[in-house]
UniProtKB/TrEMBL annotation:
InterPro entries: FAD-bd_PCMH, FAD-bd_PCMH-like_sf, FAD-bd_PCMH_sub2, FAD-linked_Oxase-like_C, Oxid_FAD_bind_N. This is FAD-linked oxidase. One of its GO terms (molecular function) is D-lactate dehydrogenase (NAD+) activity. GO terms for biological process: lactate catabolic process. Residues 426-445 are annotated as: Disordered. Keywords: FAD, Flavoprotein. The keyword Flavoprotein applies. Residues 41-214 form the FAD-binding PCMH-type domain.
Length: 468
């Protein structure tokens, strides 16, 4: 029952057991969280393999199943809370060689899961004048399958909501991990069985996605004397249904001034900013909207011309930009639900002050404009972090906890029965990304219950450049 036995059974595949490379490919951006950094810093797989086609993937899964070897799938490793980290060792399965566009039509595309999002968008623009509806802030490195398996929303959610909204994924192909792996096509409501399931119940190989019209987006940054001025502007902008838009992000002072090298020096001291992406025909609408909210435009440039795209100052990239120069911070992921999201934001700003800086993303969620928070938190202790989370939730702001690696604790604090039932069919031994679906390991799981996990760790120290 060893990884070596699987490798010996499949000698023609591109395997590596180099400790530095395997450890690098066993990691994501989990170190955003000081809690996960303490828990997962030594986690590693035992071998890495990159299948090049469906036949090789099926052979790997069948051989690993026969040997009871865990398999953890990854794309580009741009997740933030250990989604693709092999908690119990075994094989790290990198899907980046599955990178073909299979077909393209106006309004829809079919592609393999390992294709980079930036390459897929470039193809769509050439082929049909289109682009994906939305993408994560890691667009330049992330893969399509990784986004679906580990993400939920992003740049474009101002218009199209989140991945769970009906119509934002049209179809997908998934391979099971059984003695004889099957390939299943899921459509309609069945898509949710593997959407945002971290690859715990099947390996996504292909995806069929809707395509939006492509625009030559324009990045605009507007400064406001107060956070709430920026928030009200972003909320109003997001509600302009006739305007083609892709981003409505608010970053509070002093983060832009201290951490945004590309244009932060242009932001007046003490001012917060709204970062928006808008299509060129609608730029004439902005001046009156900016003036009515007391803002000052400080930057306007084509997105494609920016050295650092504006979207890389938004969503989880905001946290990354700050972490580059301040390792003492961490972050949260929060819903400020409609219709009272602005009042709740103002209340929490007053409650926490500089300890929790309210970075906001205005989106459509369930058909209604509201805000997600990816707050920048001044970290002191894990106990205080837990208290901050508790205070948010007691005041009506649910936390999607980025300081845990299980699906249930990090999401809606409930068991997704459809995903659990599908795992029983598609992964009967529980070998796919084990440790991430808490209800599989503990049928009595409930929110807040500590899970006993035996991590596969190593004391091998890789060079610093492969760790973060």
């Amino acid at each position: 029952m060893t990884v070596a036995a699987v490798m010996e059974a499949l000698p023609g595949l591109p395997w590596t057991t180099d400790p530095a490379l395997v450890r690098q490919k066993s990691r994501d951006f989990f170190w955003y969280s000081p809690v996960l950094k303490r828990q997962l810093n030594k986690v590693t797989g035992e071998a890495l393999v990159t299948p090049r086609n469906e036949a090789e993937l099926r052979a790997i899964l069948a051989a690993a199943y026969a040997q009871d070897i865990p398999v953890t799938v990854r794309g580009a490793g741009t997740g933030n809370y250990g989604q693709a980290m092999p908690l119990r060792g075994g094989i790290v399965l990198e899907m980046t060689a599955f990178d073909r566009v299979l077909w393209t039509k106006p309004g829809v595309v079919r592609a393999e899961a390992g294709i980079k999002l930036i390459d897929l968008d470039a193809h769509l623009k050439r082929a049909v004048g289109g682009e994906l509806r939305f993408h994560p802030s890691t667009k330049r490195t992330a893969t399509l399958g990784g986004f679906i398996a580990g993400g939920s929303s992003g740049i474009g959610s101002t218009t199209y909501g989140i991945l769970r909204e009906p119509g934002n994924i049209l179809g997908l192909k998934v391979m099971t991990m059984e003695a004889e792996p099957r390939v299943l096509e899921l459509r309609g409501p069945d898509l949710q069985k593997v959407n945002h399931a971290y690859g715990t119940n099947g390996i996504i190989t292909e995806l069929e996605m809707p395509v939006a019209p492509a625009w030559d987006w324009v990045d605009v940054v507007v400064a406001f004397p107060t956070l709430m001025g920026a928030a009200r502007f972003a909320d109003s902008f997001c509600r302009m249904d006739g305007v083609a838009k892709k981003l409505a992000c608010v970053v509070p002072a002093p983060l832009p001034q201290q951490h945004f090298r590309a244009w932060g020096a242009k932001v007046p001291a003490g001012h917060s900013v709204a970062c928006i992406m808008v299509a060129p025909p609608f730029l004439d609408i902005l001046p009156s909207l900016i003036t009515s909210h007391g803002g000052t435009e400080i930057l306007r440039e084509p997105s494609d011309a920016a050295e650092v795209p504006l979207y890389e100052h938004s969503w989880n990239h905001t946290t990354l930009q700050v972490l580059k120069t301040d390792k003492s911070i961490t972050y949260l992921q929060t819903l400020f639900p409609a219709p009272n999201h602005l009042e709740l934001i103002a209340k929490l700003e007053k409650m926490f002050g500089d300890e929790v800086l309210l970075h906001l993303e205005f989106v459509r969620f369930g058909g209604t404009v509201c805000a997600f928070g990816l707050q920048i938190v001044r970290f002191t202790t894990e106990e205080r972090l837990a208290e901050i989370i508790r205070l948010h939730e007691e005041n009506g702001a649910p936390i999607f906890n980025p300081h845990t690696y299980t699906l249930e604790d990090g999401g809606m604090k409930r068991v997704d029965q459809d995903q659990l039932d599908f795992k029983r069919q598609a992964d009967p031994k529980g070998l796919l990304n084990p440790g991430k679906m808490a209800a599989w390991d503990d049928p009595d799981w409930k929110p807040g219950k500590q899970q006993a996990v035996h991590l596969y760790e190593t004391d091998y120290e890789a060079p610093a450049e492969v760790l973060e």
